[in-house]
Structure formats: structure tokens, C-alpha cells
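TICKET: design request
STATUS: open
ATTACHED STRUCTURE:
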């Protein structure tokens, strides 16, 4: 098992930046993919960005060019740098760990990001 703890959320004005962190309770070196998802009120949870063990990244079209996902295996931490934030980025952001091989995913408790116009 792995516990995930997100931090770094908050209130920011449109155009501003935030960096989210996801600290894992154990090594993420062998976890197939780490990702960030978000869920806005009344909407389904959606993938924001993901990164594999080989550091291959994938982004939702809505955040390409503005968000950057990275992982620090030595610190068991995944980051999401969010720049040029927009009000539509407002959501609870969740960290996800996908071990692969058909094993169950793990989720953090979420961190609120609110972007004011």
C-alpha cells in the first residue's frame, strides 16, 4: 500500500501560479504512473496530468502549456506546477498512484485550488 498526501492548494488570482505536492509514504520508483486529477463541483473527476516511471508525461488539452508534472523519486514526491491559472481551473485536485499490473489505484485526500477572476 501507499498513502498519498497532497499539499500546496489555496486561493490565487487569475494569472497566478501554484505548485502542488504529493508525498508518498513509500518509494514511488516502481509505481507505473503517478497522476493528478481534479474534480470541480457538479463535474466528473478528470485527468489533469500523469507521469510514468520513464518520465513520459501526458496532459489534458485544457492545461497543456500551463501545467507541468514532475516526479522526484528520491523524495517520493510528485509535483504539479500550475501557471497562468484560470477560474475554470478551480477544483479539488487529487494525487493518484497507479501501480500497474492490474493492481488497485491509490488516491490522496485532495487539496482545494480556487482561482478568482
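STATUS: resolved
RESOLUTION: sequence designed for all positions
ATTACHED SEQUENCE:
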Amino acid at each position: 500500500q501507499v498513502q498519498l498526501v497532497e499539499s500546496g492548494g489555496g486561493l490565487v488570482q487569475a494569472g497566478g501560479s501554484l505548485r502542488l505536492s504529493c508525498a508518498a509514504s513509500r518509494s514511488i520508483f516502481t509505481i507505473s504512473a503517478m497522476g493528478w486529477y481534479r474534480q470541480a463541483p457538479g463535474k466528473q473527476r478528470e485527468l489533469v496530468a500523469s507521469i510514468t516511471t520513464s518520465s513520459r508525461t501526458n496532459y489534458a488539452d485544457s492545461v497543456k502549456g500551463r501545467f507541468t508534472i514532475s516526479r522526484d523519486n528520491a523524495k517520493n514526491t510528485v509535483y504539479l506546477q500550475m501557471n497562468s491559472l484560470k477560474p475554470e481551473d478551480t477544483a479539488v485536485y487529487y494525487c493518484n498512484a497507479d501501480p500497474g499490473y492490474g493492481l488497485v489505484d491509490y488516491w490522496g485526500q485532495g487539496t482545494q485550488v480556487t482561482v478568482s477572476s
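CLOSING REMARK: The chain has a mean pLDDT of 96. The first strand starts at residue 4 and ends at 7.
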